[in-house]
C-alpha cells in the first residue's frame, strides 16, 4: 500500500514498496538548484552486538503522511530550499535496503545540508512510524532516541514556564 501527497515544492510518501533513490532525486531536481542533499537510512546488520535479520515498520499512515507534509512545509519556512521529497517504508525491510529517503534541493549547499539534517531528526522524533528489530533469538520494538529528546525538551520548557510563573 502506498499513500502520498504533494504540493508546490514538496512530495511525501509512505509505502510498503522498495524506495528508489533516483525517483526522489528527480523530484527535487530543478534548474535553479545548485545543490541536492540527501539522507538514505538503511537496515544495518547489527545492533548492540546482536545480528539483525530484518526490520519491520508499522505506521499510522494517514497521520504519517500529514506529519511528513508538515515537516516539508517547516523546511520551506526555515531554509531557502527549492524542493523537498520524503519517503518512508512500512512492512519488512531487509538488511541493506532503504527504509527512509529525504532529498532536498536549494540554490546553495548550506541550506539543503542543514535542512536534510534537521529533517531526519524531526522525522524520527515526530512521525508515527514504529520499528521492530528481528534477531535470531527474538525481536523487540525499538525505542526512538529522538522522541525521547523531544519529550525531554517539552518537559524542560514546561518546567521553565512554571518557574517563571512563580
SSE topology:
Layout: E1 2-7, E2 10-15, H1 21-28, E3 35-42, E4 46-47, E5 50-59, H2 61-78, E6 81-89, E7 91-94, E8 98-106, H3 109-126, E9 129-135, E10 138-141, H4 145-165
Parallel strand pairs: 2-6
Antiparallel strand pairs: 1-2, 3-8, 4-5, 5-7, 5-9, 6-8, 9-10
Helix pairs in contact: 2-3, 3-4
Percent helix, as a range, is 25-40%
Please identify the top-level CATH class.
Alpha Beta
* Radius of gyration over C-alpha positions, nearest whole angstrom: 17 Å
Order of strands in the sheet with the most strands?
1-2-6-8-3
Largest sheet: 5 strands, mixed
CATH topology: Aldehyde Oxidoreductase, domain 3
Span between N and C termini?
A: 52 Å
Main location: cytoplasm
Binding site for substrate: 108-109, 124, 131-133
Protein name: Molybdopterin synthase catalytic subunit
GO biological process, one term: Mo-molybdopterin cofactor biosynthetic process
Keywords:
cytoplasm; transferase; 5-stranded mixed beta sheet; Mopterin_biosynth_MoaE; Aldehyde Oxidoreductase, domain 3; alpha+beta; about 170 residues
Amino acid at each position: 500500500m502506498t499513500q502520498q501527497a504533494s504540493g508546490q515544492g514538496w512530495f511525501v510518501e509512505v509505502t510498503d514498496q522498495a524506495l528508489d533513490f533516483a525517483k526522489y532525486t528527480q523530484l527535487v531536481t530543478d534548474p535553479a538548484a545548485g545543490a541536492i542533499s540527501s539522507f538514505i537510512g538503511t537496515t544495518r546488520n547489527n545492533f548492540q552486538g546482536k545480528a539483525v535479520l530484518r526490520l519491520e515498520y508499522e505506521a499510522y499512515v494517514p497521520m504519517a503522511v500529514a506529519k511528513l507534509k508538515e515537516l516539508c512545509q517547516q523546511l520551506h519556512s526555515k531554509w531557502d530550499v527549492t524542493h523537498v521529497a520524503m519517503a518512508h517504508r512500512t512492512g519488512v525491510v531487509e538488511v541493506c535496503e532503504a527504509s527512509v529517503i529525504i532529498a532536498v534541493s536549494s540554490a546553495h549547499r548550506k541550506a539543503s545540508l542543514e535542512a536534510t539534517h534537521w529533517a531526519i531528526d524531526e522525522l524520527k522524533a515526530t512521525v508515527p512510524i514504529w520499528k521492530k528489530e528481528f534477531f535470531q533469538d527474538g525481536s523487540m520494538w525499538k525505542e526512538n532516541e529522538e522522541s525521547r529528546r523531544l519529550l525531554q525538551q517539552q518537559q524542560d520548557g514546561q518546567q521553565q514556564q512554571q518557574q517563571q510563573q512563580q
